[in-house]
Known about the structure:
The complex is a heterodimer. Chain A is built from eleven helices and no strands. Chain A is an all-alpha fold. By secondary structure, chain B is of the alpha/beta class. Chain B is built from eleven helices and 13 strands. Chain B folds into two domains: about 5-215, P-loop containing nucleotide triphosphate hydrolases (Rossmann fold); about 230-290, Alpha-Beta Plaits (2-Layer Sandwich), CATH 3.30.70. The radius of gyration of chain B is 22 Å and the shape is globular. The interface of A and B includes residues 1, 3, 13, 17 and 103 of A.
Amino acid sequence: MLSTPAPVRVWEHNFAVYRRIWRSNVLGAFVQPLLYLLGMGLGVGALVDRGTNSLELLDGLSYFAFIAPALLATTAMMVSSQEALWPVIEAFMWSNSYRSMAATPLSPGQIVSGVALWQATRAAIAVTGVAIVLTFFDETRSLGLLLTIPFGALTGLAFSVPLTAWSSTRNTETSFPSIQRFVIVPLFLFGGAFYPVDQLPGWMQPIAKATPLWHGVQLCRDAVLHRLELSDTLAHVGVLTAFVVAGLAVCRITYARRLAE
Amino acid sequence: MSGPLISARKLVKRFGDFTAVDGIDIEVAPGESFGFLGPNGAGKSSTMRMIGCVSPVTDGELRIFGLDPATDGRQIRARMGVVPQSDQLDGELTVEENLVLYGRYFDIPRAESRRRTAELLDFVQLTDRAKSRVEPLSGGMKRRVTIARSLINEPELLLLDEPTTGLDPQARHILWDRLYRLKQRGVTLVITTHYMDEAEQLCDRLVVMDRGQIAAEGSPRQLIERYSTREVLELRYPAGTNEARSTDLVDIGERVEVLPDRVLIYADDGEAALSQVHARGSYPESALVRRSSLEDVFLHLTGRSLVE
């Protein structure tokens, strides 16, 4: 009998649910990035590009070219974080779908891998939507957009897997809005998406650079603008992977513990 | 396979200081239909979760198909079906999708999973609902979907945790009928219930559980013969006066139980016992003679009723 890897079989469940609701997602996936690009890129960009030294500070880029690729990474972060909060507690407490899986030969570790695989898929789908929007504009129409799909998926996972470890230990959703307010939104604002982090006060810069978002933004920006360098790329991918691996290790423990309750 | 399908020796489950299962011994033979009867909190579900290889054994020995859940959980679960206490179906998906995807968890190829799904939906008489979403279905139908789902891997052993709790009488009878057919096909059933009628209908043999221990074991008939009389006379007096009214009656029949809402007199001949009650000048508001049931066994063994 030809066997399918266990994470894929877990993934199939999420995909089946998603297939029922994707239509309601798809419009937002295009409209939201488009609005950001028009509002920030063109609106704010018109002001920024007129400033003295702006070209220098932005590494020779127009403001639009600077922020548009970052949107790939921020979207990945937003979408995967969502996927790591309510759906996880839902699967533990309301639909009990994890318990269903645990009654079969699937192990907690395989369930976790399947969940992560799905989160990566969600991020990849969302990033693809943004990438398509970016092809509408001369400055970001680039073959590098193809690379941003795996980069975006990895960035998303660097958020969703550690967050999944957290939400898998929760019995209520009360902490989730705070996570969005105090983790996701600050990163969105300070993670190098809208301005280079070296514009931040000195003490904040290392913090910004330690977050997964900054690495994801750098990867996406460099890919779209054809300026990927091997050593930087490996470093960014390495940091993001470290977040994922650490998160998976914790998830395996928290899932196993909770499913044995 | 020869030997028991499930065997437990001094099986214990503790959660912190609380001992949910306190050293039970059981053996279930292949093809048998075995029940755990007891009130909520008696340790039935904890036992089931250990047998289901999701909750680790705290102490004692447990073997299923001769295998150890601690090391061979995966192989055991592959050969077992589980009907959990609450339905764990995906309400957004169709009945069919729920089954096919569940089959995938067992690594059953998609085409084969679809074939089995069609067969199983026919078995639980839900073929016409295959394409409906699960969410709007009635409780009884959802239970049938859950049972069909639990059979997707063609299990040798089926665990049913309170299979008919919360269902109306008609839905319960439909379920019992399907479970009876499974039993005829040779599937070993392990059932927990706090319904005496369910235990009597479905179980060849059962254990009465109370506070994590086994209070008695046998077939429903044996247990009734051993721990109760052939008939029971139920008397109702005006509210709050049961205690006072029954003091004169304690020597009638073999045994008298005074419950908050009624007085039970255990006697082989209920009508004769009622005549004796009348002869003593006691006229209850209502009197009923019925056959003994497992509820009476439980009451006798523990001094408490099953459903409180």
